[in-house]
Every structure is written in C-alpha cells, then in structure tokens.
Amino acid sequence: MLKIKFGRKLLAFGTLFVFGAIYQHNLIIKLSYAKQRLELKKGKLIKEQNELMKELYQVKDPTKIRAWAMEQQGMKDLALSHVITLTGSKEGTHATQKFCSRI
Description:
Layout: H1 2-59, H2 62-72, H3 90-102
C-alpha cells in the first residue's frame, strides 16, 4: 500500500513537472517573439530618428533659411539705408523719437 501511494505521488509530481516545463518553454518562446518584435520596432525608430536628425540639420542650414525667407516670406537683403543710427547726431535723436512714438 505504501508503494502504491509513493508511485502515485511520483507519477503526479512527474506529470506536474512535465506540464510546468512545457509551460515554461512556451513562455520563453512567447517572450523571445516579443523581444524580436521590440528589436524590430527599435530599429525602425532609430532609422526614423536618424532621418529626422538629417532633416533638422538640413533645415537649420543658414543658406536654406535665407532662401526660404526670401522666397516664401518676401524678405530682402538688408541695405545700408535701412539702418538708423540712434546716437551721436540730431538725425539720430529725431529718429529715436520717431521710433519711440511708434511703440
């Protein structure tokens, strides 16, 4: 009777161990697929980041900013006649008062 109980317990323990091992193996496979998906997503995000950084540096280029300002915003090159000296002369004092009155 003792041998039968021990055999049944050993069989039950063995069965639980096998099912536990199968469950663990399935979890490992599931996690490895999730890891693979995340690595692919990480690669795509790094590629997108590099493309955005490249675009940012192209947009920050002073020659491109100047061309955009002239073409789309209608800006022109600064001429010396556009500069007002605010100190040192009567014209400068008059220009300062004129400028301050507009503010």
